[in-house]
Specification:
Layout lengths: L9 E11 L3 E11 L2 E12 L1 H14 L6 E6 L2 H8 L2 H7 L13 H13 L1 E6 L7 H14 L9 H10 L6
Parallel strand pairs: 1-4, 4-5
Antiparallel strand pairs: 1-2, 2-3
Length: 173
């Protein structure tokens, strides 16, 4: 075992995101658990997508960690898990944020926020089947839905707004 891992905090991060409709009002919910204690966080956005919220939940959880940690991420987003575990995001970055079909990658602003966090922490991704009774996943889903609704003042997802304005003007690509 590497010496830095011996006294390194081991964190569990549960995350879920949602948008209704998609795109539409969105939110993410997350739970951070360390040494038997848990903290919950959520945030809502007035116009975004489900995938952006799935990604932002993981990013926000990792950004809240104050010290280098070993983090087990649990999410029902195959988009997030597969993009990391299958190495897609690393390939996209090497290709100038282009996919194998040469089309631009979406959510680049969020992938660029996530990648340095994966270097800072040792992060292991685990996929959970959504809406299958997993208590933390169900709670994150509740938090995400509550964050986007109930008359909350919702934040602007500037990354989504920028992506829309770029896609409406293809000459900028």
């Amino acid at each position: 075992m590497e010496s830095w891992k011996i006294n390194t905090p081991h964190i569990e991060l549960y995350s879920d995101g949602s948008a209704d409709p998609n795109p539409g009002k969105g939110g993410y919910g997350l739970i951070l658990r360390y040494a038997g204690k848990s903290k919950e966080f959520a945030e809502g956005f007035e116009l975004t997508t489900n995938n952006r919220m799935e990604l932002l939940g993981v990013i926000s959880g990792l950004e809240k960690l104050k010290t280098r940690s070993i983090v087990e991420v649990y999410t029902d987003s195959s988009y997030v898990v597969d993009s990391i575990t299958k190495g897609w995001v690393f390939s996209w970055k090497m290709k100038g944020w282009r996919k194998a079909d040469k089309k631009p990658v979406i959510n680049v602003d969020l992938w660029e926020r996530l990648l340095p966090l994966l270097e800072k922490h040792e992060v292991l991704f685990h996929w959970l089947k959504g809406h299958a009774g997993h208590p933390e996943n169900e709670r994150c889903d509740e938090l995400a839905k509550a964050a986007r609704g109930n008359g909350n003042v919702l934040a602007k997802d500037f990354g989504y707004s920028s992506a829309i304005s770029l896609s409406n003007n293809p000459s900028l690509f």
